[in-house]
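*Target chain*
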Amino acid sequence: MVSSTFALLASLLTAPLAVNAISGKSYTAWDCCKPACGDNSVAGAYNRLTMIGAPKVCNINNDPLGLSAGLSAAPGCGQGGNAYLCDIYAPVPVSEQLSYGFAIMRDKTSCCKCFELTWKSGTPAAGKKMQVQIINIGGDKTTSSANDLIIYTPGGGVGPVYDGCRQQYGKSWGRTIGGVSSRDECANLPQNLQAGCYWRWNWARGDVNSWGIDYKAIACPKRLEDISGCSA
């Protein structure tokens, strides 16, 4: 009896915990602005106990700043600084059914955490998955909700902070929310951003904005941590 009780306890302790999926929608953005998780105001205030490192921040030429310099650098958006979103944060396909990328969400304690999203039936990418790491906090509250994920996608829309790409590249592209409206418009982006723009139309098969998703927390893939320079 005792041995069977211990066996039951052992099985309960070693069994994987069930993770309830969160339902929301996917959106796109690329505002060229320094990501909030790479700034002392967010990284220190809300994520000090969970973050290791911080998301890389780049200068106007997409050269990464050092960790300390990046955290303290003034954003190029609205503040006249030299800190911008690095082009390394563009999405990349891993296979026909999986992509890696980086994203924005509302939860201020989510910096450097990772999630796996699955697009729901009824969307062009139904059944496809994407694993993303959170490097920014926020979103346009007029279009997205607290349960939505905004995927960093070149040409994905500058959102409420419209001057970042104009400062870094001399212009922005497409709609404020949603960005470019077709694959052909990706040719208007700088060459270093075009592949990330084509990802939306070639791999995800469409606009991606307002598409239904289910997502859950996961352990971060090493490839994403290596790109961003942070983990949680």
Observations:
- The first strand starts at residue 22 and ends at 29.
- The helical segments are 2-14, 40-46, 67-72, 164-169, 191-202, 222-228.
- Residues 2-14 form the longest helix (13 residues).
